[in-house]
């Protein structure tokens, strides 16, 4: 695996190998905070053209804990503002011996474009437009697998702004590869995807129906930054129809997992009592982000 752009087509074997490696690294760092310095002498560049808390921080922590040098490239003060292309920026940093670039961009396909241009370095997609967020898909997989070994027994519901969500697409690719029994997509009609790529999913507009019998609920925020004015509705109405409350959660299977990639909008897609409740996996997801990104970096950089 030279670059990590999408989980689509990666296949069960490669996904499981990445998850197994993440568990090994998680265990190694749990036993010894110093951990194996597998990336000593390597340089990792964070190239974020969109905001991020979780992805950016956990890639940085993953790389640093493994001994790498990390450059948090500051887009705003860089020569990109003088018109330097992204390709020239990449070539410049590659000439300084950067080994891996973590790329987040609002445009679909930008990490793939850079991967086609990179001479030596690995490109890891940290989220592009509504296309893909592969390490989020992997950390969601690990969070589920930690509690349910057999995906074939699981009904997973993804609810919210699926149309604009790269997380939904990467989760879908992961859930298909790992063989989830049923995948349900739920949200207002305007925020549901066109059927095409989702034809194997059950698409529902009634959230109560979608929650019933679910083993895993993945809640998504409304991505207002990717919406036209016409799609931005009233938050209270949205919460009444699609908000995950304790009352709604009671319709799911016993001990159903509640997941959210963050950032959460409490009182819009999820009630605080659920976000902070015993079934919430939100912080477990965040915690798994570090070993999953360690696994991705070491795999792409060819380090055992
Ligand atoms: N889940 C996720 O991508 O969060 P950030 O935008 O904070 O990185």
UniProtKB/TrEMBL annotation:
Reactions that this protein is recorded to catalyse: carbamoyl phosphate + L-aspartate = N-carbamoyl-L-aspartate + phosphate + H(+)
Residue ranges of domain Aspartate/ornithine carbamoyltransferase Asp/Orn-binding in the record: 154-299
Matching Pfam families: OTCace (PF00185), OTCace_N (PF02729)
GO cellular component, one term: cytosol
Alphabetized SUPFAM superfamilies for the sequence: Aspartate/ornithine carbamoyltransferase (SSF53671)
Molecular function, one GO term: aspartate carbamoyltransferase activity
Keyword match Secreted: no
Ranges for domain Aspartate/ornithine carbamoyltransferase carbamoyl-P binding: 2-145
UniProt: carbamoyl phosphate binding residues: 54-55, 104, 133, 136, 262-263
GO biological process, one term: 'de novo' pyrimidine nucleobase biosynthetic process
EC primary class: transferase
EC identifiers of the protein: 2.1.3.2
InterPro entries cross-referenced by the UniProt entry: Asp/Orn_carbamoyltranf_P-bd, Asp/Orn_carbamoylTrfase, Asp/Orn_carbamoylTrfase_sf, Asp_carbamoyltransf, Asp_carbamoyltransf_Asp/Orn-bd
Residue spans crossing the bilayer: none
Residues involved in L-aspartate binding: 82, 166, 221
Entry keyword set: Pyrimidine biosynthesis, Transferase
Biochemical pathway: Pyrimidine metabolism; UMP biosynthesis via de novo pathway; (S)-dihydroorotate from bicarbonate: step 2/3
Superkingdom as given in the UniProt entry: Bacteria
Record text on subunit structure and interactions: Heterododecamer (2C3:3R2) of six catalytic PyrB chains organized as two trimers (C3), and six regulatory PyrI chains organized as three dimers (R2).
Entry function: Catalyzes the condensation of carbamoyl phosphate and aspartate to form carbamoyl aspartate and inorganic phosphate, the committed step in the de novo pyrimidine nucleotide biosynthesis pathway.
Record family assignment: Belongs to the aspartate/ornithine carbamoyltransferase superfamily. ATCase family.
HAMAP family membership: Asp_carb_tr
Protein name: Aspartate carbamoyltransferase
Species whose genome carries this gene: Dokdonella immobilis
